[in-house]
Design brief:
Alkaline Phosphatase, subunit A; 2 domains; seven-stranded mixed sheet; five-stranded antiparallel sheet; hydrolase activity; Phosphodiest/P_Trfase
C-alpha cells in the first residue's frame, strides 16, 4: 500500500504535468474585434496602384500600408510565413528552408505531408494560434505553414490540410462562414492564404501578363471578402492584415551555376538547391568540400554556417547545413542531372535572394477598427508583424521574440492599447 503523502505527491505532480501540457496561461479578455491575417504569397508592394488591384488599393488608402516589408533570411515561403506568426527569425524558429534536414528527424520538404504535419519540426517557435488558445481565445486557419501540425501539442481550433488550387472563392467563403458562427464559437484569430501569385511568378516571371492576371484574381477574392464583411455588418468590426512572404525576381535557365562543376563527387550530402544551396560533408570530406566551395565564386558566395553574414541573423540553428551558398539575385544553383530529369519547363521567376534586394520585399497593409487611417510606413523587417497581431488580439508581448512592438505602433489606431 502506497503511503498517503507519497500518493498525494504523485497526484500533485500529475496535476502539475497536466497543467503544463495544456499550457493554460492568464485568460485574456476576448478582443473587441477579430483579427484576420491574409497572405498573398509572392506579392510585391510595387504591384499595388498599377490598375490590377482596386480592392487592395482601397484597403491601402483607407488604412495603413508599408512602402515595403523586408523578409527574413532566407526569403522563402515556409521560413517567412512562420516568422510572421512567431515573431522569430528562421534561425530561431527552426524552419530554415522549404527543404531541410535535422539530425534527429531526417528530411523535410514542403511536399512531404508527413513531415509538414509533424509538430516536432515546428516546435522551436510558438505560432500565434497556440499563443491565442493558451490565453483562452479561439483560432481558425484557412491554410498557413505550421497549421497542419500539433505544435507543442496544439492545433488551431479549425484548420485544413493544404489543397493546392482550391478556388479563392471557396477559401473566402470558409472564412466568412466562421464569422457567421454564434459569438461563443466564432474565432478571434483567423488566417487565409493564397498561392496563385507566387505560382504564376515562378512559372512565367514576376512581370509577366500571367502574374498580373493572377494578382487580379486574388484581388477580386479580397473584394469578395470585404463585400462579405460589409453584408454582415462587420466591415468596421474586423481587423484585416494583408501580407506576403517575399517578392520575386526574374531568372533564366542560362543563369545557372551547376554544382557538378564545383563539387568533388561524393564529397557532400546536398540538402537543398535553388537560390541558396546547402551541403553537409560526407565523413572525411569536409576539407575537400570547403576547398571546392568556400569564398566568392562566379555568381554566388559560400560560407561555413558559423561565418554567414551577421546581418542575416542566420547560421546557428542545428538544421543549417555546414556549408551554405547564396546565389546572386537572378541566378540559381542547380544540379545538371536533376534538370535533365525534370519534365517541367524551367522557371522564369524565383525568390530566396538577399532580403536587402528591393525585389525581395513583401507586401504589408492593414485596415480595421484597430488600425490607423491613411498611414504609410517606411520599409520594416517582417519580425515586427507578430507584436502588432498580439496587440490587436489584446495579448501581452512574448518574452522570446525578435520583433519590437514599437516599430508598428504607428499602425495602430489611437484607441488600441
Amino acid at each position: 500500500m502506497t503511503p498517503f503523502p507519497t500518493r498525494l505527491a504523485a497526484l500533485l505532480a500529475a496535476l502539475l504535468l497536466a497543467a503544463c501540457a495544456r499550457d493554460v496561461r492568464e485568460p485574456a479578455p476576448a478582443p473587441a474585434h477579430p483579427v484576420l491575417l491574409v497572405s498573398i504569397d509572392g506579392a510585391h508592394p510595387g504591384s499595388l496602384f498599377r490598375g490590377d488591384t482596386p480592392n487592395l488599393d482601397a484597403l491601402a488608402r483607407r488604412g495603413t500600408r508599408a512602402e515595403g516589408m523586408r523578409p527574413s533570411y532566407p526569403s522563402l515561403t515556409f521560413p517567412n510565413h512562420y516568422t510572421l506568426v512567431t515573431g522569430l527569425r528562421p534561425d530561431r524558429h527552426g524552419i530554415i528552408d522549404n527543404r531541410m534536414s535535422d539530425p534527429e528527424l531526417g528530411g523535410f520538404s514542403m511536399q512531404d505531408r508527413t513531415a509538414v504535419g509533424d509538430g516536432r519540426w515546428w516546435s522551436d517557435g510558438e505560432p500565434l494560434w497556440v499563443t491565442a488558445q493558451a490565453h483562452g481565445l479561439r483560432s481558425a486557419t484557412m491554410f498557413w505553414p505550421g497549421s497542419e501540425a500539433a505544435v507543442r501539442g496544439v492545433r488551431p481550433g479549425r484548420w485544413f490540410p493544404f489543397e493546392y488550387g482550391l478556388p479563392e472563392a471557396q477559401r473566402v467563403a470558409t472564412v466568412l462562414g466562421w464569422l457567421d458562427l454564434p459569438a461563443a464559437r466564432r474565432p478571434h484569430l483567423m488566417t487565409l492564404y493564397f498561392e496563385r501569385v507566387d505560382t504564376a511568378g515562378h512559372v512565367f516571371g514576376p512581370g509577366s501578363a500571367q502574374a498580373r492576371a493572377a494578382l487580379a484574381t486574388v484581388d477580386a477574392a479580397i473584394g469578395e471578402l470585404v463585400a462579405g464583411l460589409e453584408a454582415r455588418g462587420l466591415r468596421e468590426r474586423v481587423n484585416l492584415v494583408v501580407v506576403s512572404d517575399h517578392g520575386m525576381a526574374d531568372i533564366h535557365p542560362d543563369r545557372t551555376v551547376f554544382v557538378e562543376d564545383l563539387l568533388p563527387a561524393g564529397a557532400a550530402e546536398v540538402v537543398h538547391l535553388g537560390s541558396q544551396a546547402g551541403f553537409n560533408p560526407r565523413p572525411g570530406k569536409r576539407a575537400a568540400l570547403e576547398a571546392a566551395l568556400l569564398g566568392r565564386r562566379d555568381h554566388m558566395e559560400c560560407w561555413r554556417r558559423e561565418d554567414l553574414p551577421e546581418r542575416w541573423a542566420f547560421g546557428s540553428h542545428r538544421r543549417v547545413p555546414a556549408v551554405y551558398c547564396q546565389a546572386d539575385t537572378g541566378w540559381r544553383i542547380e544540379s545538371r542531372e536533376r534538370r535533365a530529369r525534370s519534365k517541367a519547363p524551367p522557371h522564369l521567376g524565383a525568390h530566396g535572394f538577399d532580403p536587402a534586394d528591393p525585389r525581395m520585399q513583401a507586401l504589408f497593409l492593414a485596415d480595421g477598427p484597430g488600425i490607423a487611417d491613411a498611414t504609410t510606413l517606411p520599409v520594416f523587417d517582417n519580425v515586427h508583424v507578430h507584436p502588432l497581431l498580439l496587440a490587436l488580439l489584446g495579448l501581452p508581448p512574448m518574452p522570446r521574440t525578435d520583433g519590437d512592438p514599437a516599430v508598428l505602433r504607428p499602425a495602430l489606431s489611437a484607441g488600441t492599447p
